[in-house]
Amino acid sequence: MNFLILICLGSGITFLMMGWIQKRYSPKCVNSLYGYKTSNTFEPQESWGFAHKYSADKIISSGLVVFFISIIFYFIELEFVISLLVGTSITLISVIWVMVSTEKAIKENSGNKEVVTQQWLGSTDSLRSGLKNEHERLLLQQLKIVNWTKRQQGTV
Length: 156
Known about the structure:
Elements: H1 3-24, H2 39-42, H3 45-72, H4 80-109, H5 113-121, H6 124-127, H7 134-153
């Protein structure tokens, strides 16, 4: 039995499930129980929401890549130790890629609160009917105030 297939297949399916769960049931407020937690995501609420949405997409992408790698390696026979090392390496590289790309996106968007808020909440037109809690209503209100202020100053 090729253990590379088992490692990559298991990792790919796990990543797909984790990404779907994080995308569907991501925590709305900063908490210490679960979620994508790094020093860049704890401070502003917008970064917390953006990090979860962005990293969920990256986790799903990573899961698909690892899953298809396992299918490719189905046709390649490797020794036990080599397959174990390659499978573990592929999984670790996937995790590191998700973290590095998410942290990079957070840093790129952290200076632009409006962009982060819009990416987290979606477009303001589609939000009017689907606001889920008071915190999202307040963020939308702040976004509208920022846009109105920019229009008044002529910077938009």
